[in-house]
Amino acid sequence: MTKLPTVLSIVRDNTLNDLKGHDGRLVFFTQTVLILFLLTLTLSAASIQAYLQTNLDGLLGADLVLESHEPLPRTAEDVLFAEADGVSKTELISITMTHGETWQRVQLKLVDNAYPLQGALTVGVSPASQSRTVERGPVAGEIWLGPRLAVKLGAGVGDILTLGTADLRVSAILFHEPDRLMEGHSVALRAMVHAGSLDTAGVDGGDRRLRYLITADEAAEGRMESWAGETLPAARLVKKRGGSHPLALFWKRTENFLGIASIILVFMAAVAIDMTNRRWLARIRYRLALYASFGVGLATGVRMAGLQWLIGFAVAFCVGAVGALAAHALIVQALQVHFPGLAFGWHMGAVLKTAALVFCLLLLFQTPAFVQLRHASILALVRAGQIPPDQMSSRQRLWFRLVSGLAGLGLVAAVYSDNWLLTGLVLGAFAAAIAVMMAVTWGVLNLGDVWGRRRAGFLPFAFFIMKQRIFGKSAQILGLGLCVLMLLFTLMLMRDLGATMQAYSRTHDGNLLIADVRADQMDAVRDWAARTGSAVRQLRPFVGAQLVAVNDTALADHMRKPSDTLSALQDPVRLSWTDTMPDNNQLAGGTWWPQATPRWQRISAEAEVMTDLGLSYGDRLTFRIGGQSYRFELAATHRYRPGHGSITFWFQVPASARAHISADTRYMGSMELPATAWPALAGLWRRYPTLSLVPLRDLTERFDRTLAMVTRLTTGFAGMVLVLAVIVLAASISGFEADDRRKNGLLMSMGLTPGQCLKLNLYDWAVTALIAALGGVAGTWIAGVLIYRSQFGLVYKPDVAWTLGMAAAMVIIVCVVGRLAARRSLRASVRDLLVP
């Protein structure tokens, strides 16, 4: 039996020798890049979550905050005042403030005499002045403006602003609110008034949010939390002691998004490792045969190979961890502008979880190689041949490698995905590309072989050779094709997104979006439009509805994993009614209701919402509308259909339901304003400050800022994809180098010149690259069609010339690199080429 020190010494020497070789370095670098990316993501997310928890303790402005979108009954307020040591009632409304001909959309906070309960409220006399702490908010008749709002309106201390019928004097510039934390990641312009200032101002309606800031001991907090959960289903509680930061789920979703984007990197790493495993298997088979000649059993040799792989993983993890720490430090430094006090840290628990994830991923990618070794016979090892067909056929090996790679992707999706529809579409595009490439590979090689049987020349001979190596050639084409797909998917979709969305919105939405208008305000809007020559293009009625339960289970309990859909449903959404399917919707499943149906408690949900929430037909959805609960049965799902306007809704009910719902009707739509009408908007807003009208230029400015940020992120991500693409290309050449050397040696021994061998190699690489490019372009097109339609409701219109140009460039690069590799191998003698 081999002694342990001897085994460890052999394993150490083999590991060092492999790392000195080309293939060993490729695998090591692939593992390191994957570890670096996922560890950097983990450390950054953990630091932000730790910062948010610390931030929660100091910036909540109370021990407990109760938030609701509907007024609490008087009895509920009595319970709060009885249980709490102190209560301050605040209210947030979205309005448009004007000063002269200038307007800005503002988040206005109404406070009472008890505000603030905890923390510092600071103000100044100008946006650039020193701040001072005050004990109370503004008094009746005064208004405080945030510094950005003051600059944008051109207003200062002493100016008079009109809200509805109330004239308010600007008495201070508002710098800091102790309960600012509840605003989450909002960058809205801010202002503050005393609640009594608007009692007779005629400012009503709009999106209102009530908050009760509460100070209480821990026992009272527990009682209020239980009471609110039972009696206030639409309310949200945030507490200082053991609570969760309002932004925690937002950053968790950000981490999930980046994690699911790493599927691209994981897929490319799997391809690179699969390619290099061919050479790794040849080396290990040779070593196992050598061990067998000294009496070492096959099982012991396989265990030694496994130990060697573990050591390589440990070294790659250490190097990747050092790189991740450096990247994490740079990210923390950049984020400190937005999060003062954010600290660099080594979060061991999160790191260990990520280490386990990466270990499982890489082990899945390596498993096919270990299985092949375990099924090998001593005779096959001594002959250094392939695994005998009776043990595992070439077809079985190819499928086993594919399944292992897909299992790794499934693992990443299970850990990070918070949008299963999007994840399914991405994986579906990959699967479609694989299917296209496999079908085209088998079709082209078989048809090429049939075509060339009665013809002479190098191209028919090249088809004959590729047909004999069809399984190995399929693996090579899949690797390169997926590499093309990743590059095009990363670069092209982000490149086209901005232009497509902007062109679409300008075509269909007019230049002014009606985001939220009450029915009694709509007459004034129509009169104003008639006077100014404006036209209302689209208009749909709705009521504000908050989903609070699914099948009588609270929404938070029904779905605990964070997602964009769940985040949006924490607040009221728009619920519309119609008997006919809108022109810009199409039925995605279920049964739409007939005209004037008496069964008014039926509902249709947008397809992505249904998928993300895990809903099924027949589920009972409970909504809070106008302070009352309404239950609907899920009967259908609808999907957005582009080309007929962009006003659509997540939830729609029969028109007969409107008579049973006690709530004010509101409208959403769009208008087209001539240039002369824009200055008159200030007068309309001065009379109706809660009118939510958003100019298209404001939307496009926000979109441009978002797109710029996303472009910076994806540029870095595309850089990592490009690095892995180079690795995949190198691995695809290195992994099949031994086969190519033997092929060239045989051809030259038959009398072919090196130049003729190069010509055959060029045909080989050209066919390989063309099929790979075709599969990559097809996969990118499928992904674009599915994701644009599902996620953005847009028709995907790629730049065909740019796409074909990129694909052609990749084909040329593959052919050039393949030719250089073949030229290098042909410098050796025929004897050397034939030696395995």
Automatic annotation (TrEMBL):
Keyword Chaperone: no
Sorted UniProt keywords: Cell membrane, Membrane, Transmembrane, Transmembrane helix
Domain ABC3 transporter permease C-terminal: 717-827
Signal peptide range in chain numbering: none
Keyword Transmembrane among UniProt keywords: yes
Subcellular location: Cell membrane
TM ranges: 26-46, 256-273, 285-302, 309-332, 344-365, 398-416, 422-445, 475-494, 716-736, 765-788, 800-822
Gene Ontology cellular-component terms listed: plasma membrane
Domain of life of the source: Bacteria
Membrane topology: Multi-pass membrane protein
Record protein name field: Putative lysophospholipase L1 biosynthesis ABC-type transport system permease subunit
Record organism: Eilatimonas milleporae
